[in-house]
Amino acid sequence: MPPNNTQMRERFIIADDDDFADEFHIHDLEERELKFRPKEIYKDLVNLDWSQVVWRNVILFTLLHVYFVYGIYLVLSGQTAWQTVCFSVVLYWFGGLGITMGCHRLWAHKSYKAVFPVRFVLMIMQTLAFQNSIYEWSRDHRVHHKFTETDADPHNAKRGFFFAHMGWLMTRKHPDVVRGGKTLDFSDLMEDPLVAFQHKYYLLLVLLCCFVGPTLIPVFLWNEHWLTALMVSGFMRYTFVLHFTWTVNSLAHYVGTKPYDKTMYATENPLVAYLAMGEGWHNYHHVFPYDYRASEFGGASTSNLTTGVIEFLSRFGFTYDLKAASDSLIQKRVLRTGDATKRRVMKNK
């Protein structure tokens, strides 16, 4: 039976303690801080163990960014129809929600449940984002939470900003990542028929959803040139979505405040929150990973589009069992482990 089917449905489930903390979410870190220094990025590349580089991925990412730059040129030079630009923006948001609302909050953290039609749409939107299958993305993310900033973390930020951002996708996995992954149970993911279907036919689905569809729609609906459509709605849009996702792994582990737990590397980063539809409130998320909001507050005030969509759908029963930490639990954690930023605000109230 799919993991999101239930007989007793509730709109919200509020935790007054760490009821939902499980084997996927364990932290035991000393107080430490990562500093973003651009010069360090160069040093990281110079000191890289080149024997571990996956050159096929390096070549593919290089070509992708060449197409990305060409796509930007086509837009800025006025060679792209305005409909194509707007269409690309819409696809950007759709693909982004496929990651944030689908892969991240629904499948990886199980922070809420959704009816089959919503899960189906999220599966298509996640395929549009082309960031590995739902199973692979959720697997890696659970390993990240379990072994944050250790060698078993797939995108360990202590290995450098560039590595955390995209370098981890161009090098072989550390043996600890493989060993760590084997200690976790991911069977719940493949029990969802949509996840299993997408994983089995992923390459075909990605070709259709990420490139063929975004190219053909502008060509046939408003007579866009096929190459322009491919470069703008395909490669340029795709690269933007990749980088907004990667900023959560890099910027949101290097730059920002830690009002909920100063012993964690994850930070609160408003810029990342804006780019990643609410995923930038990362210190909160690492403290309460089961919270469907991925932040203490939702809505437009915190650039948390993902939370807004989940809550809107919950009004009609399309999403349900939304898990959240209680206000009292949040305040206790702030006072116990947070830095001074939020404690000052609470004191002045």
Can you give a write-up of this model?
The protein is mainly alpha-helical and 349 residues long. The chain has one domain. It is built from 17 helices and four strands. The chain has a two-stranded parallel sheet. A two-stranded antiparallel ribbon has the order 2-3. The termini are far apart. The C terminus is likely disordered.
Task: Please write out the topology.
Blueprint (H helix, E strand, L loop, with lengths): L11 E4 L22 H9 L8 H22 L5 H27 L4 E2 L1 H14 L4 H13 L14 H5 L9 H7 L5 H4 L2 H8 L1 H21 L3 H24 L1 H4 L15 H6 L6 H6 L17 H10 L4 E2 L1 E4 L1 H11 L2 H9 L1
Parallel strand pairs: 1-4
Antiparallel strand pairs: 2-3
Key features?
57% helix; 17 helices; two-stranded parallel ribbon; 349 residues; two-stranded antiparallel sheet; mainly alpha; 3% strand
* Largest sheet data: 2 strands, parallel
**What is the arithmetic mean of pLDDT?**
90
Total discrete domains: 1
The share of residues in helices is: 55-70%
- Spatial strand arrangement across the major sheet: 1-4
Number of strands: 4
Order of helices and strands: EHHHEHHHHHHHHHHHHEEHH
**Rg over alpha carbons:** 20 Å
Characterize the overall form. globular
Strand content: under 5%
How many helices in DSSP terms?
Answer: 17
Q: Between the first and last Cα atoms, what is the distance in angstroms?
A: 48 Å
Q: Find the structural class using helix and strand composition.
A: mainly alpha
Contiguous low-pLDDT stretches (5 residues minimum) are 22-29, 344-349
Membrane topology: Multi-pass membrane protein
Domain Fatty acid desaturase: 81-290
Cofactor: Fe(2+)
Main location: membrane
